[in-house]
Amino acid sequence: MTDPILFSVDDGLARITLNRPESLNAFDAALAHEWARVTVEATSHDDVGAIVLDAAGRAFCAGGDVREMAQKMGSGADIRELAGVINVGIRALTESVIPVVAAAHGTTAGGGLGILMTSDYAVVGANSRIGSLYANIGLTPDLSVSAQLAHAIGQRRALQLVLQDRMLAADEALAWGLVAEVVPGDDPASIAQGVKARADEIARFWLANAYGAYGQAKRLIRSQPDRTFVEQLAEEARSIGAAFDTPESQARVAAFAAASKSRS
């Protein structure tokens, strides 16, 4: 049996690869449980400074496996339980202090949109298409789509996406702020390779620099809705003070000051 997720950690980089290419990486029960396990493991590693989230085959993630829903899910309670399992992984990634980059080539739809938004930086290909499509099968957004989409692109645009069967082209997703970069190209296979290569490059950039500071910056942005403005100011002050006391920050601040002095 093929593993539904491929997972590895190499020199500080954790890689999580959705691995149901024949089903466009749609979530069935096996993928859901492995997703929860692997994401918790990845974010628990002390030596992990960056996470790449990618997928096998010609698509990133088509959401839930509708065929399994029809054949094996006997009630709404079954769907609710499975969503709860997947949500464990969504929380693990979004609440961690490890920056996550997604290599989302091809199609992203339904709950796959929520999986995409667990990343902090998303790279797609020129041929990518991203949409909601829940209502097409009479269902409502899950897997953090209603929790994160409006924060990412604004309420009016979020409503446009969930109230139509619209699939955003890559350049539209970029203009809306849903993704950070679009990799050009004409051939789907080469585009997918380019998307993954660019995501790796971003993760390596984090690792080569002050990845702990990047992680804390992510935490400050992600957790801000839990605080008032005054509380956020206080948390920013606490965080930068804690960062300043680390050996890495002390070395970087000293090097920056020395370089500035030599230029003056």
Automatic annotation (TrEMBL):
Gene3D superfamilies, sorted: 2-enoyl-CoA Hydratase, Chain A, domain 1
GO annotation, biological process: fatty acid beta-oxidation
Molecular-function GO term, any one: catalytic activity
InterPro entries to which the protein is assigned, alphabetical: ClpP/crotonase-like_dom_sf, Enoyl-CoA_hydra/iso
Pfam family, one: ECH_1
PANTHER family cross-referenced by the UniProt entry: ENOYL-COA HYDRATASE, MITOCHONDRIAL, ENOYL-COA HYDRATASE-RELATED
Protein's UniProt name: Enoyl-CoA hydratase/isomerase family protein
Native source organism of the sequence: Microbacterium allomyrinae
